[in-house]
Amino acid sequence: MKDSTDPSPAETALALAQKRIAELEDQLKAKSESENEREQDDDVLSKANLMALLENTSDYIVISDAENSPRFFNHGYAAIMKELLGIDMKPGVRPNLQLQSAEQRAFWEDCHRRIRAGEQFRAEFPLERPNHEPRYFEISCNPLIVDGKVIGSSEVTREVTAKKKQERMLRDSERYNRMLVQR
């Protein structure tokens, strides 16, 4: 005769199913935590790689908001702003407003207008300072667009002064050679 405290086969099956469900939930939770940790590790690594890329370049990099106010910049950018304009860069400081030359300010105003219009472009510009030889730079401007709206920009600038000097020397040499041939 069966004892009334013995579980029925259905109750036994239910208890085993509940135990298995609990085991699977524990495994899923452990796997989810492991995946979250891996995703966090990947995120940290991605940010570290991005920072290494930005800091280990000779280019000057700045990311600005929609009002062209710098929000992030690499050490190279901060150093060149200090060297050329005497500016201690901080997020929000707008170097173009510190320029002495109306022509240079107009150049940057035009760049910012083009960025706000969503244009991606490259340009060269000289930076002339009293009692110094001019230095030449090439800038690559890229609007940051989200949902069709310009939310900011990235600017990558590199110095091309040596290239400009070589071009000038080549032109002078060509001019001199033409003059010799014409004699």
Keywords for this structure?
single chain; 183 residues; alpha+beta; five-stranded antiparallel sheet; 4 helices
Notes on the protein architecture:
This protein has helices at 9-55, 75-85, 102-116, 161-182, and strands spanning 60-65, 70-73, 121-127, 135-146, 149-159. By secondary structure, the chain is of the alpha+beta class.
- Globally, the shape reads elongated
Mean pLDDT: 84
Strand order of the largest sheet: 2-1-5-4-3
SS-based class:
alpha+beta
Strand content: 15-25%
What is the count of helical runs? Answer: 4
Q: Helicity range of the residues? A: 40-55%
Number of strands: 5
Return residue spans where pLDDT drops below 50 for at least 5 consecutive residues: none
Radius of gyration: 31 Å
Which series of helices and strands comes N to C? HEEHHEEEH
* Largest β sheet strand count, sense and barrel closure: 5 strands, antiparallel
**Could you give the distance between the termini?**
130 Å
Short synopsis of the structure:
The chain has 183 residues and is of the alpha+beta class. It is built from four helices and five strands.
Lay out the secondary structure.
Elements (H helix, E strand, L loop, with lengths): L8 H47 L4 E6 L4 E4 L1 H11 L16 H15 L4 E7 L7 E12 L2 E11 L1 H22 L1
Antiparallel strand pairs: 1-2, 1-5, 3-4, 4-5
